[in-house]
Every structure is written in C-alpha cells, then in structure tokens.
Design brief:
single chain, mainly alpha, 10 helices
C-alpha cells in the first residue's frame, strides 16, 4: 500500500479493524501451535495493541491488553488442552463455537443459515479448502471473514474508489447484523461459566469489540437474551462430529485485493 495514503484516518481505521479481527480469528483456532506462534511474536502483539488503541474503544482496549498479557508465555499444548476442555473436541452443546447452534431450533433453519454464511464468503471469492475440519460458521472463520473485508476496504480506499468501498462496508454491516454480531455476546456468557482464564478474556474481548464495531456501523446492540439454548444440527445427536469428512471446511483466507 501507498505509505502516505495509509495515514488517511479512514484507511488507518480499516487496517486497525483488520488487525484486531485477524488476532481474534487466530486466537480462536483450536490449534495450540498457532497461538504459541502468536504469543511469541512480539511485533504482532504490539501491532494488535496499537490497533486497539487507535480505535479508542476503552472496554475493548482494556480487554486486548489483558488477553495479550495472558497469552505471553503460555505454551501451545496447554492452550490446546484448555480449548478442548471448554469447547470440546466436537461441537459441544454447553459452549459451542459455531453460530448456527444458537437460536436456530430446526435443522432446516440451521442449514439455511450455513448456506447464507457460505454465500457471503463465496461472494468475495473465498472458497472452501480441502483438509480443514471446521464448519463455515465457526467463530474463527467468521472473524477471519471480517478481517478480509476490513483489509480490502483499506485497499479499496487507496486504489479503487467510493463504489468498491461502499460495497465492502455494506457487506461488513450485513454480516455483523445477520451473523457475527448476533450471537457472540451469548457465546461469551457461556464461556464465563466454563473458565476464568485466557479464553474468558478472549471471549469478552470479542464480544466487546464486535459490539463496538457494530455500533460504528449504526447497528443497535443485538438482543441475544432470547436465543434458544444451543442445539445440534442433528436433532438426534447431542454433539455434532466435526471431522474433515463431515463438516464444511474453510480456507486460510488471506486478503487478495
């Protein structure tokens, strides 16, 4: 990117938003190795803190500092064990990490939501990759999608123009309203029942930041108090197997302006 153009306040904000969404996406991966790599990267953690400070959103800023502090010095194996203790090796009903297990009580309604989420991704050229065993509505993937859109917004503000920027902004607003912003606060409340450690701080950061970001798009806070208890996609199963052969898979979604 043109370094002079990066100092445009709207470009800086889009890049800051992209940085925070990317951090959250990586941090919610089940891979302890990914988190260990992130924890050891002082430059990345510093950029995450700068991004949070740039956005001047106090609650999210404090939560960012706390999450980064807890992450430093934590080994990948212990984080992976903690992740699976809280969220399970499958889609646990008491603290699921997938959107469609919140509030969609019928298998066909859930299938429609999955199709809508996948449609968002495909509309921006993001295809499903082979060999990755998470569903399209996994919190990490939804966060990664917002990271990509925010990054492309920054690029479009420099290289394309108002029409492309408006398209990307509209997509972000719609995805927050219809998907990511709808359920993450409920998710954070469930996490609070399972742990007081890193993942609670991370879930609170995600909820605070997404609520703040949604407000910046003029969206009202989602009323998630009436979300139905988490349910399985299969009404006869208490958990949904989520191996590579049974779930939609997602790619490593790097921005491709």
């Amino acid at each position: 990117m043109d370094q002079q153009a990066v100092h445009d306040p709207q470009v800086e904000e889009a890049l800051a938003r992209s940085t925070l969404y990317r951090f959250l996406s990586v941090a919610f991966l089940p891979s302890g190795e990914a988190l260990e790599t992130l924890a050891a990267d002082a430059d990345t953690l510093a950029s995450v803190k700068r991004a949070s400070g740039h956005l001047a959103r106090d609650e999210a800023g404090m939560a960012t500092e706390e999450a980064c502090r807890l992450l430093i010095g934590t080994d990948g194996a212990s984080l992976s064990d903690e992740y699976h203790r809280i969220f399970g090796h499958h889609a646990a009903r008491d603290c699921p990490v997938c959107e469609t297990e919140y509030g969609a009580g019928h298998v066909f309604q859930q299938a429609q939501q999955l199709a809508d989420i996948a449609g968002f991704y495909l509309a921006f050229g993001l295809e499903v990759a082979d060999g990755v065993g998470e569903r399209v509505d996994h919190i990490s993937l939804e966060l990664e999608f917002m990271h990509v859109l925010a990054f492309r917004e920054a690029y479009a503000r420099i290289h394309h123009g108002t029409e492309e920027v408006a398209l990307l902004r509209d997509a972000q607003r719609a995805f927050l309203q219809d998907h990511l912003g709808r359920w993450v606060s409920a998710f954070a409340r469930l996490v609070s029942r399972k742990t007081e450690g890193f993942y609670l701080r991370l879930a609170r950061l995600a909820a605070a930041y997404i609520q703040s970001d949604a407000a910046s798009f003029g969206l009202r806070p989602a009323d998630d108090t009436e979300l139905a208890p988490p349910v399985s996609l299969d009404p006869e199963e208490s958990v949904l197997p989520c191996g590579a052969d049974s779930c939609p898979l997602y790619p490593e979604m790097e921005p491709q302006p």
